[in-house]
Amino acid sequence: MKRHLLLSPGLYFTCIVAALAQSGPVAVASPSNGGQGQPVSYASVTQLNGLLSQIEATSKNTQDDLSKLRIEKWKASGSDKKQALGYVDSIQRNLQGALPEIITQLRNSPEDVSATFKLYRNLDALYDVMNNVAELTGAFGSKDDLQSVSNDINGFENTRKQLAERIETLASSKEQELTRLRTQVKTLQAQAETPVPPKKIVVDDTEPAKKPAKKKATTTKKPADATKPSTGTATNPPAQQQGQTKPQ
């Protein structure tokens, strides 16, 4: 079986850069940190859980199949048997130690680019070593053992392809996020470099003019109206002299 490179050199480099950037201030929400930081979509977590479940199932089947190999009974040279046993031991240690640790790390941080890329590289290494075991099994083992090992390789290969697609999606998302953050930083720097004119503060120290006190209104008696008769007894005008005679 030939191994096919799933990540292009450009994407491979992008993933490394994104993984290094992950150690910066960009945070990703996860079950372990109480949802702090950037939230993770339900679809993303569901996809990852499906991938991890497939890997765990393939890992269990692979360990069982490798333990059933009777390498010591192969009609092979001592060096070939020793080499096959070395491959099997290396795979078993990886499946029981390194792989579960990476899976746990990813479950705690579903969109951690560094951990996702680490899992991809681990599956890539397992794929290579499993192919070596398959070649030796095909040469010296039984057909049933070869079929079992081949099925395990196909299981790792399928999840490895899906993981490569997920890495590409995460790398693109992180690149967009970094671009947005760079734009925000440039905007804040431009605002900081723009001088802000000082505010003018006008102090009015003049005392307000005191209002004159209101004078109390005084009541004045209206003068008596001459046209109206007085309330007292009227005096008759002096009578004409009695002795005055009318003119003839």
Output the keywords.
mainly alpha, I/LWEQ domain, 5 helices, single chain, about 250 residues, about 60% helix
Q: How would you describe what is shown here?
A:
- By secondary structure, the protein is mainly α.
- The protein has a domain at 9-173: Up-down Bundle (I/LWEQ domain), CATH 1.20.1410.
- The chain is built from five helices and no strands.
- The chain has helices at residues 9-21, 42-68, 78-108, 113-140, 143-193.
- The longest helix is centred in the C-terminal third of the chain and has 51 residues, at 143-193.
- The radius of gyration is 51 Å and the shape is rod-shaped.
- Residues 16-37 have low confidence and may be disordered.
Instruction: Determine the N-to-C terminus distance.
Output: 176 Å
Mean pLDDT: 78
> Helix fraction?
55-70%
The total beta strand count reads: 0
- Strand content of the residues, in percent? under 5%
Structural class: mainly alpha
What are the segments in which pLDDT stays under 50 over at least 5 consecutive residues?
16-37
Helix run count: 5
Task: State the CATH architecture of the domain at 9-173.
Answer: Up-down Bundle
Spell out the blueprint of helices and strands.
Blueprint: H1 9-21, H2 42-68, H3 78-108, H4 113-140, H5 143-193
